[in-house]
Write the structure tokens for this entry.
Amino acid sequence: MTLRVLFFGNSESVFSNRHFQALLETPCVIAGVVDVPPNKRSSTNTRAREGAGFVASAHERGIPAFEPTSSNAPEFVNVIRALAPDLFIAVVYMNRLKPEILAVPRILAANFHASLLPAYRGKHPLFWALRNGERSVGLTVHVMDPSFDTGDILYQIRVRTRKTDTVGSAYDRVMARSVPLVGRLIADAETGPTTRLRRTPQATRGASYYSSVGEEDFRLDWSRDAKQHRRWIQTSPGQCFCDIAGRRVFFMDAAVVPRKRSAVAGTLIEIGRKSVTIAAGKRALRVRKVRVGQEDVRSAGEVFRELGWE
């Protein structure tokens, strides 16, 4: 029997859209797609969306598309129930699904979560893992339950991080391994949902939860160690900032260097023709490229002189 699948995602997310494209290539019937409302479509992955999002793709194929304010509203649950789905697949769907709607699919509801669960439950898991300097990231396909990312594990893949990783580059490597799991899930659910879909309860040890990312999460605090600053800037180039002379300056790169002289954290130690060196924690940070507001990227030395921070 060909499975009927309902896809839940974020139409502005590269991660969500790429997994949907994999779903289109599987032998299943896509009964419908569900997008989060516009105010929930934030992402820490700065990769531009590739082509049309999954909602546009659904429209092109005559697949029903929905954007409910509340996916748990009784009237929406009834609409979904009428589609008779066998399986839910969720990828970067930011709204919590409650028991009534999770009971709708005949087989189960599965979520593709970009972490090595039980670590980094919640929102933006890969971003937080890179920020915290984890040596490995990955993805877990798990059964959805009413809590955030606590259901039984179906599949898990692990990817080593690199010192040069941004959120985008790490996501690219995770996706290369996780996209094929869409086809595997469909095949296992169709041929042996009770035997091939092995459910492993999550461990309690090592569990962690992270929430939304806000503007203040990108503000640089120079009292922190320079190594942490470098990692934050590398993870999200052009997003970490500090305010100088009433202007917001965004940092594009950073390298940790020894501090040649004693200085209070946040002090400009050296300003060169193109770079600047700033005291950070017990060491220093050398920066070559910055951006002021929405202006073009320029050399840090030039910008800092113009702003009078010498």
Remarks:
- The chain has nine helices and 17 strands.
- The chain has a mean pLDDT of 93.
